[in-house]
Amino acid sequence: MFYELARPFLFHLDPEVAHDLALPAFKHFGRFGAGALIGLPGQPMAGAPVEAMGLTFPNAVGLAAGLDKNGEFIDALAQFGFGFIEIGTVTPRPQPGNPKPRLFRLPRAEALINRMGFNNGGVDAMVANVKAARFDGVLGINIGKNFDTPIEHAADDYVACLDRVYPLASYITVNISSPNTKNLRKLQSGEELGPLLSRIMRARDRQARATKRRVPLAVKIAPDLDDEAIGAIADTLVAHDVDAVIATNTTLSRDGVAGLPHAEEQGGLSGAPLRRRSNEVVSRLAKALGGKLPIIGVGGILSAADALQKLDAGASLVQVYTGLIYRGPGLVPGIVTALAQEAPRARARAARG
Fold first, then answer.
1. Residue 111 CA: distances (Å) to CA of 104, 187, 222, 258, 296
2. Which helix (H) or strand (E) holds 31?
3. pLDDT tens for each residue of 154-177
4. SS3 339
5. What pLDDT is recorded for position 40?
6. CA-based nearest residue to 16, from 205, 267, 273
7. Which residues have C-beta within 8 Å of that of residue 333, sequence separation ≥ 6?
8. What are the DSSP calls for 151-184, one per residue?
């Protein structure tokens, strides 16, 4: 109810300004124990638990990376009822991202276009924020490279971030699929992905030996891949003992939004128009992987039915972001409740991962 009243005001603001107002507001309500007054569950909701990546998720609904790039609002977001939270993308050094405006709403399509460009305060600032948070649930940390790091040295940035966040993360996501950092998606190709993962996995194994704690590693891929590329990526992930794959990031396609205001803005498209393509990638990945590692499905989830489609396509877990903008925090408990009612099917899906 609170979000339904606030949304018209927020949608009159520039999208990035609205984002910068809304998250501190939720943090304020959570800090003073008033989350329940605005309809927040207040903690991870008990639902149909999922075992994946060697972790236990209290429910299958997570927050996708991008909403809280610096880990400033972990405790506030934990009030939404998520089974897990992913923060980032973070880079070794602070960077401002692309020039504003860089975030655009397409309300008629329930979509967003963003070209944020990994704007963040750097990995040291994120580490300080995570250490200050009280959250003790499943926390994913999404890592990337600085915009001015040459692609041939990208592994240096990923390893630098991994080393810093390793002690704090439940799992770490390698983001090689944002369309808003020049040449980043080249890292998905066969000739680039294998060597990159070799470096990162060696760094992970070194940290695991030093800390006596093995943190799972996920890789996030784009929706703009053909069947051959999806199959090649699946083979490479399995060959390098990656623990999960997140499908998908935003798309460069404008299917479903052509002719709408802002549709021609550069950047990645998310929201309802991405749903079908994301589901197709999840399905093709599931066939290529044959249950060898779990899939986290993300893209176009604005309802419980959308989440169930992702799970039916082969995902073990789901993540939301744009759906929160259009549906508000109530989206999360709605999905968690629906999945709990589907518990027998959820257990069967979890067994695939």
1. 9, 26, 17, 12, 20
2. helix 15-31
3. 999 999 999 999 999 999 999 999
4. helix
5. 73
6. 267
7. 41, 45, 81
8. GGGHHHHHHHHHHHHGGG-SEEEEE---TTSTTG
Strand, helix or coil for residue 84: strand
Dig out the tokens for 175 from the structure: 């983001």
Catalytically active residues, by annotation: 178
Both tokens of residue 14? 């520039």
pLDDT at 46 exceeding the cut of 90: no
CA dist 181 and 268 (Å) reads 11
Q: What does pTM read for this prediction?
A: 0.95
Tokens of 161: 């971030």
Strands (E), 37-128: 50-52, 55-57, 61-63, 84-90, 103-106, 111-114
The string of pLDDT tens digits covering residues 108-147 is: 999 999 999 999 999 999 999 999 999 999 999 999 999 9
- In 3-state terms, what secondary structure has residue 8? helix
Q: Does residue 229 have a pLDDT over 60?
A: yes
Superfamily (CATH) of domain 2-352:
Aldolase class I (3.20.20.70)
The rounded distance, in Å, linking the Cα atoms of 104 and 269 is: 9
> Any idea what DSSP says for residue 329?
T
Written as one letter, the residue type at 316 is: S
Report pLDDT for 213: 98
**Per the structure block, which two tokens stand in for 63?**
């927050």
The CA-based dihedral angle spanning residues 131, 141, 101, 111, taken in that order and rounded to the nearest 10 degrees? -130
Packing angle, helices 331-341 and 304-313, rounded to 10: 50
Per the listing, tokens 């990031």 go with 249
Token pair for residue 155? Answer: 């592994």
Structure tokens at 95: 């960077």
- Look at residue 323 in the predicted model and tell me its pLDDT: 98
Name the amino acid, one letter, at 348: A
Environment class of 5 (CB within 10 Å of its CB; exposed 0-12, middle 13-18, buried 19+):
exposed
